[in-house]
Specification:
The chain is α+β, with helices and mostly antiparallel strands. Helix content is 17%, strand content 34%. The chain contains eleven helices and 37 strands. Strand 2 and strand 3 form a beta hairpin. Helix 5 packs antiparallel against helix 7. It is elongated and about 95 Å long. Mean pLDDT is 92; it is low at 103-110.
């Protein structure tokens, strides 16, 4: 049972972290409510060691100690534990989410290996010596197929979040915070996107592991999450929707770097202006010096770009909060100088970026200075073509985990046989009905697109760990060969009728 000692200072940290909202602060003292499930999170987060968890001599009538994870919540009649997965109904724990028998969103090339049921709503297996919650059989085209499902608590888990944006958010390795607690870091950039890593075993087992677990699950379940990078850049993320960065909704994912943009649209650029600069934090492109410019019959205009030269017509940009994620704040600042022995007065310059958002036109005067001028119809057509070629910005969440322990023990008495069978393709692994990519090498390390998983499939337990619905589908003969729990197989029609 949870007890509050005289050392309590009413700071409210326990109240903020209680998954059951069972704590109130009254007169600068934490008060434990009747809906407390004895999960112990409050005692673990208390900075003053003012909350202790003790063994109760008498437990309330009809209460049940949950054994589906090591936390062993004490769940009273009519209530749920910390993970919210099970409800005590008259002294018996019942999964409070219906089983999902298939996932029509996924188009399987191997239809025989589509899971018979998903792990969503299945419940867990703990300790590992027990068979999985559901092991079902179905005959498909004359072949007996078996699917084994469980909701697996995975300490080794996290999400990789792909954010389509050219906006500067920080450097690789910069910490990511949620609710003021570190939950991950910026990893790298991919073409037109920033990559974020949230979670992982080290952060999940830190003192702020509960916040980390909740953040992972919220992102994986498609909830809106606000994070900050270096406590400077604020991002609002939701799976499948456009990201918001520092209050601005991102609209377009870049078509390519500045150099690639020149290569793709050199012919149109030739008609749009005498010179075109495409700003980008990675590679800035200069049309007339670029090989693509030469390909369409152009020679260098004499314009000198504000950037460090990489190769012909290509210049390294610097990360910053300016145009195209560079340090260049104004379009004219893209020009470092003009070689007037080559440049001709009256020549036109278009400065744009890789999403066609910046569209500034200039004309060179007799003193070698570019002056702003009205954008031409051809230049406008060019930038609109660039913009139309860009994809819509979105947030993509990939759940990554490693299945061992009960995630394998509930399937077979010989876990190494399951691992080998998965890698050999004899066992097809899915997560919440969606195909998972199993990484090469030892173990069963996987990633899955959470946008394809049965909705609201992920949860967490206060060990802390995230919980993912896992399915293994194979022929009955292959299941027997890996040492499966053959005695626990049930016909799927029986399960459909009873639901449990």
């Amino acid at each position: 049972m949870i007890q509050v000692t005289k050392d309590c200072r009413g700071c409210g940290i326990c109240q903020k972290n209680c998954p059951n909202d069972a704590i109130l602060i009254e007169e600068k003292l934490a008060v434990i409510g009747e809906n407390c499930s004895d999960c112990g999170i409050c005692s673990r987060v208390c900075p003053f060691d003012a909350i202790i968890k003790t063994v109760a001599e008498d437990e309330p009538a009809n209460s049940v100690r949950c054994t589906f994870c090591p936390v062993q919540c004490l769940i009273k009649d009519g209530l749920s534990g910390a993970c919210k997965r099970f409800i005590n109904t008259g002294g018996a724990l019942k999964r409070n989410k219906d089983l999902v028998f298939d996932n029509d969103k996924e188009d399987y090339s191997r239809t025989d290996y589509k899971p018979i049921i998903t792990g969503t709503g299945a419940g867990s297996t703990y300790p590992c010596c027990r068979p999985a919650p559901h092991i079902v059989n179905e005959n498909r085209n004359g072949v007996d197929m078996v699917t084994v499902v469980t909701e697996a608590p995975l300490s080794y888990s996290g999400v990789t979040v792909k954010v389509d944006t050219n906006t500067y958010i920080g450097e690789a390795g910069d910490p990511i915070y949620c609710g003021g607690k570190k939950v991950g870091m910026v990893v790298t950039e991919e073409y037109g996107a920033k990559m974020l890593s949230i979670g992982g075993a080290n952060l999940l087992t830190s003192k702020d592991g509960f916040v980390v677990a909740r953040t992972i699950v919220s992102l994986a379940n498609g909830e809106e999450v606000t994070i900050s990078i270096n406590k400077k850049t604020t991002m609002v993320l939701k799976n499948g929707e456009a990201p918001t960065i520092n209050g601005v909704v991102e609209r377009k994912m870049r078509v390519g770097c500045g150099s690639a943009t020149v290569g793709l649209f050199a012919e149109k650029m030739k008609s749009a202006a005498d010179e075109v600069i495409v700003l980008d934090h990675h590679i800035i492109g200069l049309l007339t010096e670029h090989l693509a410019g030469a390909e369409v019959g152009l020679t260098w205009s004499g314009v000198i770009v504000n950037g460090d030269k990489s190769t012909r017509g290509r210049y390294f940009g610097n990360h910053g909060e300016g145009i195209g994620g560079t340090t260049i704040m104004s379009a004219i600042d893209a020009v470092a100088g003009v070689n007037m022995t080559i440049a001709k007065p009256g020549m036109t310059l278009l400065v744009t970026d890789t999403i066609g958002q910046t569209r500034s036109m200039f004309s060179l005067n007799n003193e070698g200075i570019f002056e702003a001028t009205e954008i031409t119809a051809q230049a406008l057509e060019l930038v609109e073509t660039i913009q139309a070629t860009c994809e819509e910005s979105t947030v993509s969440v990939l759940y990554i985990g490693g299945t061992g322990g009960s995630a394998r023990g509930g399937v077979t008495k010989q876990p190494i046989h399951l691992t080998k069978a998965v890698h050999e393709g004899k066992v097809h692994m899915t997560v919440g009905g969606a195909n998972a990519y199993v990484m090469p090498g030892g173990g069963i390390n996987f990633m899955v697109d959470t946008n394809k998983v049965v909705p609201d499939s992920f949860t967490w337990v206060p060990t802390p760990a995230t919980v993912a619905p896992i399915e293994y589908t194979m022929t009955r003969s292959d299941y027997e060969s890996i040492g499966g729990h053959m005695e626990a197989i049930r016909d799927v029609q029986e399960l459909r009728q009873t639901g449990e």
